[in-house]
Amino acid sequence: MVFEHVLDTGPSMMYSITEQVLEDIKAFGVTDGLAVVYCPHTTAAITINEGADPSVVSDLLKGLEAISPQRASYTHGEGNSHAHLKSTLVGVSQTLVIENGRLLLGTWQSVFFCEFDGPRRRKYYVKIINGSPIVSHMAAGQK
Length: 143
Ligand code: ZN
Known about the structure:
Blueprint: E1 2-8, E2 13-16, H1 18-28, E3 33-38, E4 44-50, H2 54-67, H3 81-90, E5 93-99, E6 102-103, E7 109-115, E8 121-130, H4 133-141
Antiparallel strand pairs: 1-8, 2-7, 3-5, 3-8, 4-7, 5-6
């Protein structure tokens, strides 16, 4: 089962989607497994980083802009090569561990959808994979 979500974004920004992923896990009823968060876009990304202090997000965006500035001698005609580069640097998916119905995230970690070429209507997917230890135990016993 895959959950599909729509996000209307503004200009370059990171949106915490941690609560949505937790809701999907609860709705699916899996207590142990994996959640793959994936975005099907070439100028957006998914990452995990600090969600407590909003200045971390603004510094990350500032740092990515320094690495991949909007104005450079790119050749791509759409004029958004800086956003394509940021998407590739950050990556379009993250795999999260679900343990006892919770995400194994650190105290300060949040899951973010990263917009590098907004505003746009975006999508992201949450694929939950059941890894129940009971199922694993039974499979091991059948060898
Ligand atoms: Zn483009």
